[in-house]
Amino acid sequence: MGSGYLLSPLMLIINTLFDLYILLVLLRFLLQMLRADFYNPISQFIVRVTTPPLRVLRRFIPSIRGQDTAAIVLCLLLIFAKFMILRALEVKAVHIGGVVAPIIGVSYGGLLVFCIADLIALTFTVFLVAVIIVVILSWIAPGSNNPVIGLVHRLAEPVLRPLRRVIPPVGGLDLSPLFATLILLVGKMLVIPPIVLLGTF
Questions:
Q1: Of 144, 96, 119, nearest in space to 27 by CA
Q2: Are 83 and 110 in contact (CB under 8 A)?
């Protein structure tokens, strides 16, 4: 068995641990931006596990227009650290939003561009998953209310609300989630590849 035998599970562990924490930090930023209920138990958990590094960064990084800029910087730093670890393990490329990005042979500036692309791709995914969950809940548990459902609806509303204004229900069926899903998927396909390509220069 060659070195690849251990590399694959090691990559899985690294990606999982980093991606979960990056997701929590991004959710904290988005929920704060959308003025979600921070007394929600899920919100409290997210705040508790992401506060220690953010407390340090906020000493140097001020908020911009009331938004927690330190959270975005922390996400980028974590993605950059993940890419550096993978590069040290001689992983040649990573997948960013379905696009292959070579992390060996690119400059640190290129890696930073990849970090931005990865964070944007994750943001698209968060909104997409939120919309899909809202649709599923409307089928299996309409009108139910718990901490998770409240936060999911809060994440999906910025995408669904504008579409509901221009797309009327058809036979009582709300078509806005269908169009929201399509827009998010197409948007991700159009936005991510040019950014990744920029990072390879």
A1: 119
A2: no
At 114 the pLDDT is 96
Q: Which of 76, 83, 122 is nearest to 102 (CA)?
A: 83
Helix residue spans in 101-146 (DSSP H): 108-140
**Distance separating alpha carbons of residues 82 and 77, to the nearest angstrom:** 9
Chain segment 8-30, per-residue pLDDT in tens: 888 889 999 999 999 999 999 99
Task: Pick the closest to residue 160 from 112, 119, 136, 128 (CA basis).
Answer: 128
- The secondary structure of residue 39, as a DSSP letter, is T
Helix (H, G, I), strand (E, B) or coil at 21: helix
Outline where the chain has alpha helix (H).
Answer: 4-33, 41-57, 69-88, 108-140, 147-166, 176-199
Distances (CA, A) of 25 to 16, 31, 60, 107, 185: 14, 10, 18, 26, 23
